[in-house]
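Just curious. Protein, please.
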Amino acid sequence: MSTSTLMSMRSARLSIRPLLQTRGKATAPFRLPDPRNEPNPLYKRGSEERAKLEQALSKLRTQLPVQSNIYYDGKAQSSTQTWDQPLPAEHGSIFTNYPLATKEQTSEAIEAALQAKQAWQDTPFVDRAAIFLKAAELVTGKYRHELIAATMLGQGKNIWQGEIDAAAELADFFRLNCNFVAEILEKQPTRGSDGMWSRLDYRPLEGFVYAISPFNFTAIGGNLISGPALLGNVVLWKPSPSNVYASSIIYKILLEAGLPPNVIQFVTGDPQVINAVVFSHREFAGLNFIGSSDVFRSLYGQIGEGVANKRYREFPRIVAETSGKNFHLLHPSADVPSAVNHTIRGAFEYQGQKCSATSRVYVPESRAEEFLSALKAGVNNITIGNPDGDLEAFMGPVIHRASFEKIKSVIDKTNKDPSAKLLVGGTYDDSVGFYVNPTVYQVDSPDHALFNEEIFGPVLAVHVYPDSEWSATLKKVDQGGGGFALTGAVFASDRVAIREAEDALRYSAGNFYINCKTTAALIGQQSFGGARASGTNDKAGSADSLRRFTSPRLIKEEFFPQDGFLYPSNHQ
């Protein structure tokens, strides 16, 4: 081959290389790392991870009260009005002070997000995913102990509850949401005809997504914002007033990971003020919510009014996971010691403040004495303490004054109820922090208020049923629970009984567990969500909930011209 020919070929390769590189950045196939769950250090006394966490707790203590901010337009924003969040364990001390966004600031945040929308949705998924994968590494590395410390002090969690939430679950959401979005994008038409092909273009929603996160899980805020953002949406994020500081750390981690500033806006303040601006905006396109059923009903109504008045560009997508009245049902064949341990964890870890917490238990008469005796002994051994002052404590304080007063009212009323027998607890103390002792009642009827009203605290109700009424009890479990259907569990070794329960309770829980507590979902392994009064059941921790934040466009292309308009049946 001549030298001139070689030079010509080399020149041709050079001339097309920029095009190939440009297209490669946007369209070349790639493979995400295999999904995995973040392993949990054990934080035993004397361990390195425990020492680092203790240092982070001590450092945070010296900084109290920490300042939180509104973030939009690439920088922190101040406000003339602010709010103090007290330490749940020491309500005389302020944990954080944060600004209350005005209507004008909320509007500015929305407009700044909308201005960033086109550039973000044009950013290739590979680049969006890289940001959240890096954020996961920052969560589990550089910021792990800072996040856990903020969650322990600000939300009253012990070490283990802080670790599985603010470190492991948050990282799991960031990593696995990338895989879930890839799963969505990979779903393409597989059938076709000669001379044509079809494909799906997964577009972000037209407008912005509004994410409202709760106090009880730092990780949930990361999930509510990351899924829609990975799909190319811009997001206005309003964290719970009782989880502002830890949430602000997540926001700053995302910026450090490379997220453009206006893709996600961090707005704190009065929910009524922020909601009024959001739900009156034409570009409101979706709600991603976790909180109480009553709050969700109110939000749903406001959105419905906007739809009825033709306020929005498109019908808003609504995803919500809300309240629960979650059950443990024991069959006579149950392993009682195991069921007791699962029940104590399910009812009292994090003071019963998980939406999936166990709050009603049905026990067969033949196993009642064994179960109740072991339950009382176990609950009496639960330790309670300040999250950073007593690192071995199993329980801490409830989140705030309103929660304490609600639980106190339920306990005071039930202590006087002749149809309810106090087995253990029934006391509380708010002299220093918002502490409620783990409380168990045995009630005569499965229709008792304790079996139907969400308390969101460390109060458990037990009903003993005759062994002969197993089938009738299945109906009671299904019909009870205040109309909620979030989580539930059956404990049995008899496979026939397990099958009967699984079938009879098919609509009683969105997450149904066999020989396992109701608080057992792990991201990527057990997707989470309930129906009835417990939400839209779109299943967080899976691709299902993320699909709600994309608007697919089907594209069909024919390769050859149409040479006539008549069909064969039109010819004589």
Notes: The CA atoms of residues 325 and 481 lie 5 Å apart. The first helix runs from residue 3 to 27. The first strand starts at residue 66 and ends at 67.
